[in-house]
Amino acid sequence: MKKVKIAILGLGTVGSGVYKLLERRKQEMPSKAGVEIEIAKILVRNLEKAEKKVGRELLTDDWREIVEDESISVIIEVMGGMEPACTIIMEAFRAGKHVVSANKDLIASRGKELLEAAKDNGCDFLFEAAVAGGIPILRPMKQCLAGNEISDIMGIFNGTTNFILTKMTDDGMEFEDALRVAKELGYAEADPTADVEGYDAGRKVAILASIAFHSRVVFEDVYTEGISKINAKDIQYAKELGCDIKLLGVAKNTDNGIEARVHPMLIPSGHPLASVKDAFNAVFVHGDAVDDAMFYGRGAGEMPTASAIVGDVIDILRDIEWGCCGRIGCSCYRELPVKAIGDVESKYFMRLHAEDKPGVLATIAGVFGNNAVSISKLIQKNTQDGFAELAIVTDLVKEYHFRDAVTVLGGMSVIQKISSIIRVL
């Protein structure tokens, strides 16, 4: 039976999971994919450290040793970062090798040129693990849902922020306390910026929007806003309004262009995404034929991510066996504009402190009215030192109108401070 040699770039958490899962499934590969497999080489930075995990004969610290080995057919890139990952993948395609990657940073910014290089060289380039870890979403979008016109995608794409918000909601923690727990349990990195400021989720939204709407969206197109300014009082008000706060990635295909954004949002507690707790992820998709579909599971971690990667490897092995590599490549055959965030319509929750005296509410309402903002709900409480805390929920309004109103309110002497601004589903 034909044997296919595979190389792995990186032996960190995910790389170790991929190695273990491929070894676990080795005996089944002839039945699953029609070929045998052999892990031929693993690229690492530190040979001595890696020797504690696998045999020295498998290891190399020179990527050219892998790319130039004509016997290796499939490369799994789990090293992360832009470089040297991009250079290695491009050289791998030029050498006729197929690539599986989990590198969302690279794909969200340079996916177009990578897919084109794969096509030019008749290679497969699959990256299921780059968006939602162990949750299958890219393959369903490209295959199972290909008969649909997808109009909306909304989801929880980052387990770290979802864990933090769950702790704040269920245990009444402040952000910093919840972040500390997330670090202690290994859900958050030492530097959590990419997670808590929405960058990680933004990259995933860019990739998914490109596939769903068949038009290129890059990370730089995605508006990102994180959860570091959310506090326990915001969570309390959300509960009073029958809502939960989640960091959501949103992509919409509208008549005026694509919306691509990541930000905190109040969502009704009865919404399916509100029940997604802790480090779990979920993606909500709307298509004209399928209607609504939701994909739920573990969006990160050693073995869930390895699950998606090995699934891609098996797909490539089948393509090699049946001589149909490059079967499913870039699906961006449209050129749609991406809307500026100022042109996006949303509802808003605003919490502010204003002087507690006659006429102030009318003044605030007048500022909103003059800027085409309609108030849906208003809650007043917690008067202290002559200032009342107000919680205001608006109707749908274009972002630039709302921002204009906020600018005016921020400059008024009767307004002590604007504490929070959060969008509402």
Automatic annotation (TrEMBL):
One of its GO terms (molecular function) is homoserine dehydrogenase activity. InterPro entries: ACT-like_dom_sf (IPR045865), ACT_dom (IPR002912), Asp/hSer_DH_NAD-bd (IPR005106), HDH (IPR016204), HDH_cat (IPR001342), HDH_CS (IPR019811), NAD(P)-bd_dom_sf (IPR036291). It catalyses: L-homoserine + NADP(+) = L-aspartate 4-semialdehyde + NADPH + H(+). Keywords: Amino-acid biosynthesis, Metal-binding, Methionine biosynthesis, NAD, NADP, Oxidoreductase, Sodium, Threonine biosynthesis. CDD domains: ACT_HSDH-Hom. Pathway: Amino-acid biosynthesis; L-methionine biosynthesis via de novo pathway; L-homoserine from L-aspartate: step 3/3; Amino-acid biosynthesis; L-threonine biosynthesis; L-threonine from L-aspartate: step 3/5. The keyword NADP applies. The active site is at residue 204. Its cofactor is a metal cation. Pfam families: ACT, Homoserine_dh, NAD_binding_3. NCBIfam families: PRK06349.1 (NF004976). PANTHER family: HOMOSERINE DEHYDROGENASE (PTHR43331:SF1). NADPH binds at residue 104. Transmembrane segments: none annotated. GO terms for biological process: methionine biosynthetic process; threonine biosynthetic process. Belongs to the homoserine dehydrogenase family. NADP(+) binds at residues 9-16. L-homoserine binds at residue 189. The keyword Amino-acid biosynthesis applies. This is Homoserine dehydrogenase. Its EC number is 1.1.1.3.
